[in-house]
Amino acid sequence: MSQEEKRVAAVPRSASVVGLPFALGVLLALGLLWATGQLGAALAAGLSYGQLPLLAIAVLGWRAERAPRARVLAVALLYTIGVGLTTVTLAMAWLALGGEGAPRAASASLAGLALVLLALLLLPALLLVRPVRLVLARVFPLEPDAFRHWLGLVALFWLVAIPLALLALLAGRPPLEALAVRTGAEALEQPTALELLYGLGWTLILSLAAAGFPQARPLGAALVRLGLTWPGWRWLVVGIVLSVAMVPLFDLVDRAASAIVAGFGLATTPSSWIERLFGRSVGIGGVLVAALAAGLGEEVVWRGLVQPRYGLLAAALGFSAMHGFQYGPDGLLSVFVSGLVLGLVRRWRNTTVAAVIHTGYDFWLLLGMQLHWW
After folding, report:
1. Non-local CB neighbours of 182 within 8 Å, separated by 6+ positions
2. For residue range 34-71, what is the model confidence (pLDDT) as tens digits?
3. Is 103 helix (H, G, I), strand (E, B) or coil?
4. Phi and psi, residue 81, nearest 5°
5. 3-state class of 341 per DSSP?
6. At 10, is the secondary structure helix, strand, or coil?
7. Cα 123–128–133 angle (5° rounding)?
8. Domain positions in the chain
9. Is the full-model pTM beyond 0.70?
């Protein structure tokens, strides 16, 4: 048993103690959102970022241990998300390749992408064969018959493979950048600070539910499972210092990644595109909210939830691939390296310190862009 599992086991597992206050808190939050006219915006944020359907799958995954019908609902919902993601991916590819005016060669490429995406959707059916699960359980710390473990693995597989398939079709060109050029979009629609906070809230709720709260673990045990424990003031200071050090360090990593990718003859992410993504004026408050939403939200998911179950490399790969619509292969390589670094921080300390480093790094980077330091 790992040290983390021992800490989780040491926390009382009586979920009923926290479950009722948590439910009342959720109802109170919903009531406040309704009273202030923000309920629709909050629900829309949960749908647009995908947290609400994933939250339902997480709940059903835990329920499946006691209610077999929940397995059918979970798989149906998971495949609904998978089909939706592939549909969006195909639509983006069609537009990026020229839409109705695309040449015949582009149509052939699009048909090839459709076949690849179909294969990716069908491949998880192999998990129905128990020997396949036994083999995979030797690679990942998974239980062969724990249904929720395999639900998460399928979701992780799709989140990695589908964006990378589109990136390969476009020869490394960032899909959103190619789409913006084809459609002639001058400005990119960016989420507001409130939408980012709503998205962060849903991400935290999703992560807690996937960690078993309140169905299988009380709040304290779920937080330990996610690595969201108090690291001490010294480690908070260390995290802030490391976040500053990461700015020049990852400038070098970015340059090295660009050189490696260019050496293979692939497209690199244009600096003008990065400025369009992140260079708009949002003020110090907007920078702080954006950094917190990305730093805390992404760390809780990838380092807190995914890494202990599927391993450091899988978490770093998923963290990188989730940026596959935004960046070219050089950007994804740089994000992958940062995922490895943050994953080591999670392993040596906890998710809290990794989130401090990630949030701080994003804050300094975005602040520098706002102030035209770089």
Report:
1. 95, 96, 97, 98, 99
2. 888 888 888 888 888 889 999 999 999 999 878 889 99
3. coil
4. -65, -45
5. helix
6. helix
7. 90
8. 3-370
9. yes
